[in-house]
Design brief:
The chain is α/β, with parallel strands linked by helices. It folds into three domains: 161 residues, 3-Layer(aba) Sandwich (Rossmann fold); 118 residues, Formiminotransferase, N-terminal subdomain (Formiminotransferase-cyclodeaminase, Chain B, domain 1); 116 residues, Formiminotransferase, C-terminal subdomain (Alpha-Beta Plaits, 2-Layer Sandwich). Helix content is 38%, strand content 17%. It is built from 14 helices and 14 strands. The strands form three sheets. A seven-stranded parallel sheet has the order 3-2-1-4-5-6-7, with helices on both faces. It has a four-stranded antiparallel sheet with strand order 12-13-11-14. A three-stranded parallel sheet has the order 8-10-9. Helix 3 crosses helix 4. The two termini are 31 Å apart.
């Protein structure tokens, strides 16, 4: 079977999920992935251990600036050559089925397979189909869609099958392994927790939409219950009620208090029965924006100052939306820290909370000695800070930041 996809992770991941399921059920199956030469798909697919071949295709820009016109001429040349490349690949790798999951590379492969009489199918994860998927409708035998409302966007509804969005098995396997090796009845620690796999966040990035992440979270929650008997709550953008948006509120009671909590009328799990797994507890699953763990260190050994500042800035106390904050003592350095989780840096940018902490610190007779970002952070969260402090005018990070063009950043 050939899977053809590219452009964004939202096109690649469904293909990886389908390929994994195929190998799980038919271990003797041959699988080949086909994408663009310079797309993100090559790294994602090869990192997942699948063979990859490329065709020379690229996107078209809508701007009429000279640079974009030159790019479009190259893309047109590649587009005209791509059917021949696709036919050569199909000759080298005789396929029983060619499946496209979106991206420019899908077009020549599906079109060539259709002309050669090879069965074809496309899968569209988005509620609104992309251009390539719409153009391929007349060349394909089956159209699989993630949402029922997507059906109306096609001229041949008899071809359309609502399948949902495929979920890669990695997430399930991680949950299964955690349940095997972690016994929550013996687990202790500083951080609040309620399960062996405490939380599984799905973060929309690289072309994946929030809606896709919500659908994936639901499918995973159902599978975890069906196969592992571990119940779960949906939180953040996947939440089924306002009380379940905030993870801290969902997790309240922790593993030890969760059996009693689940008996309350408003706290039935979204998947599973009103009882936790005996040793693996319960899991929170949901779609959310990228979280930025941002800490600010103060030139004081008085932890109460950090706690007072945290109370002012955190959203639950009437401060900034999408800001969770607490005050801690860094014992090894003898200074206090305001520790934050910025759950949506676009609603409340990092520079905004930094300036408020700076002002409040001065009020309490101290100052900021430094700040830190813990773990991964979206580049745009930091670019927004640079744009603010440099007072850049008419700045467009998507067009003016070099790395956006080199590595396909969002």
């Amino acid at each position: 079977m050939i899977f053809t996809c590219g452009g964004t992770a939202g096109h690649v991941n469904p293909a990886l999920a389908l390929a994994g399921l195929l190998k799980e059920r038919r271990p003797d199956s041959g699988v080949l992935f086909v994408g663009a030469h310079r797309g993100i798909e090559k790294k994602l697919i090869e990192d997942a251990g699948w063979p990859f071949r490329a065709v020379e295709v690229s996107n078209f820009h809508r701007s009429l600036r000279p640079r974009e016109i030159r790019h479009n001429l190259v893309s047109l040349r590649n587009f005209l050559r791509s059917p021949g490349e696709a036919r050569r690949l199909l000759g080298e790798f005789p396929a029983d089925l060619v499946v496209g999951t979106g991206g420019y590379a899908s077009y020549p492969m599906i079109q060539a397979a259709s002309k050669l009489g090879i069965p074809t199918a496309i899968h569209e994860s988005n509620a609104i189909p992309g251009l390539t998927t719409r153009l391929l409708e007349r060349h394909t035998d089956l159209i699989m869609v993630g949402f029922e409302e997507c059906r109306k966007n096609y001229k041949n509804p008899e071809k359309v099958l609502v399948t949902g969005t495929p979920v890669r098995g990695d997430f399930f396997q991680l949950t299964k392994k955690a349940a095997e090796v972690i016994d929550m009845t013996k687990h202790v620690g500083e951080h609040s927790r309620m399960g062996a796999t405490d939380v599984i966040p799905f973060v929309p990035t690289m072309g994946v939409t929030v809606e896709e992440c919500v659908e994936i979270s639901k499918r995973l929650g159902q599978r975890i219950w069906d196969e592992l008997q571990i119940p779960s709550f949906l939180y953040e953008d996947s939440a089924t009620s306002p009380d379940r948006v905030n993870l801290a509120k969902v997790r309240k009671g922790q593993f030890e208090g969760m059996p009693e909590k689940l008996l309350q009328p408003e706290w039935a799990p979204d998947f599973g029965e009103r009882k936790i797994h005996p040793t693996a507890g319960i899991t929170a699953i949901g779609a959310r924006m990228p979280l930025v763990a941002f800490n600010v260190n103060l030139a004081t050994s008085d932890v109460e100052v950090a706690k007072k500042i945290a109370k002012v800035i955190r959203g639950s106390s009437g401060g900034f939306k999408c800001c969770k904050a607490m005050g801690f003592m860094l014992e090894d350095r003898g200074i206090a820290q305001v520790s934050m989780n910025m759950v949506n840096y676009e609603v409340t940018p990092l520079n905004v909370v930094y300036e408020m902490i700076k002002s409040l610190a001065e009020r309490y007779g101290t100052y900021i000695v430094g700040s830190e970002v813990v773990g991964l952070t979206p580049a745009k969260a930091l670019i927004d800070c640079a744009e603010h402090y440099l007072k850049l005018e008419n700045f467009d990070c998507h067009n003016q930041v070099m790395e956006y063009h080199l590595v396909g950043m969002e």
